[in-house]
Amino acid sequence: MKILLVRLRLVGDVVFTTPVIRAVRRKYPQAELTYLVEPPAAAVVQGNPHLDDVIVVPKASGLSRLMGDAALAWRLRRRAFDLAIDMHGGPRAAWLTWATGAPTRIGYDIKGRRWMYTTVVDRSPDLAPRHSVVNQWDLLRILGVEDCQPDRDAVEMAEEPRAVASVESRLAAAAIDASHPLVLIHVSAGNPFRRWPAMAFEDLVVGLAQRDAHRRIVLTSGPSEAAAAAGIASRARARLGPLAAAVPDLGEFDLAELRALAGRASVYIGGDSGPMHIAATTDTPIVALLGPTLPERSKPWRDPRLFSEIIDVSLPCRPCHQRTCEPGDFRCLTWIEPARVLDAAERALAAGTGSGSR
């Protein structure tokens, strides 16, 4: 049996599909299992132990995209898949799923696209207080797959030896060893509605270093916000003076390296973003800063026995569609005090680090 799983677009969304991968493999242990993904999130599933193949779809536009998708559709049709599951639901993902010609094609019941599937499944509303992993699990019910539980079906990302070696080399070059509690803070988010203010991150970094000068606090960001992360680190060092060594500059990290760094860290702190969900694939304690999104939908999906603390503010405007801030001041994030996050980080550090992976 040949099975194709389709999930395009964002890193966090692809991370949320990894429990589905494991469940499909459990249901069909002898199947040939292939995953279709775009380049930005490909590292999440490359090396996944339950997959036989990963097809990376180039992100293109205009005529080149049409030609590329037509060629890809022909390749997929020739693979003769028996089952295709579209976990995305976007126009491109739906069309590629249809183009496989698989006799069973499962997807969400979305107007204008339901005809591309042989079986359609109701899609939970975007703002419903229901986890994204559970929403995607709905696609498996027609196959008779049992309910999803985070302790058994946690998110997953394989640790890449090349990335582990790279991270260890950079830490060693910065004179960071196992005796240093490593605090990983990711300052980026997918959009401004999920981004904690730079000054708040700066105050957090300074507070963490002042409480324990032996800590090493590493700031990371998405490629487009590298300057913002560097600015936060630079201002924190200036404020720390003789303690500035607590905030080393280790450069930028790709997704595989970020996974390795998160696995090495004593605590991960950040907003609702792909990197937070990558951190959830490790045993490392997490402090999650959730603004417009609800914990019920976006919290780390992993064994509840692992330390994960959600920091948010209860507001009548939450959740929102993240198009316009109704109050205008992004209060779901700006009202999160650095002192509150600092205290949560201390609890996470006291809980101990897993320094491991699943």
Write a concise synopsis of the structure shown.
The protein is an alpha/beta fold and 358 residues long.
Q: Helices and strands in order, then pairings?
A:
Elements: E1 2-6, H1 11-15, H2 18-27, E2 32-37, H3 42-45, E3 53-56, H4 62-79, E4 83-86, H5 91-99, E5 104-108, E6 119-121, H6 132-137, H7 161-173, E7 182-186, H8 198-211, E8 216-220, H9 226-240, H10 255-264, E9 267-271, H11 274-279, E10 286-289, H12 295-298, E11 308-311, H13 331-334, H14 338-351
Parallel strand pairs: 1-2, 1-4, 2-3, 4-5, 5-6, 7-8, 7-9, 9-10, 10-11
Helix pairs in contact: 7-10, 8-9, 8-14
Quaternary: single chain
Order of helices and strands: EHHEHEHEHEEHHEHEHHEHEHEHH
- Sheet with most strands: strand arrangement: 3-2-1-4-5-6
Total domains, how many?
A: 2
Structural category:
alpha/beta
As a percent range, the share of helical residues equals 25-40%
Number of strands: 11
Low confidence ranges? none
CATH H-level name of the largest domain... which superfamily?
Answer: Glycogen Phosphorylase B
Tell me the name of the CATH class of the largest domain.
Alpha Beta
Q: Which second-level CATH architecture of the largest domain applies?
A: 3-Layer(aba) Sandwich
CATH topology of the largest domain: Rossmann fold
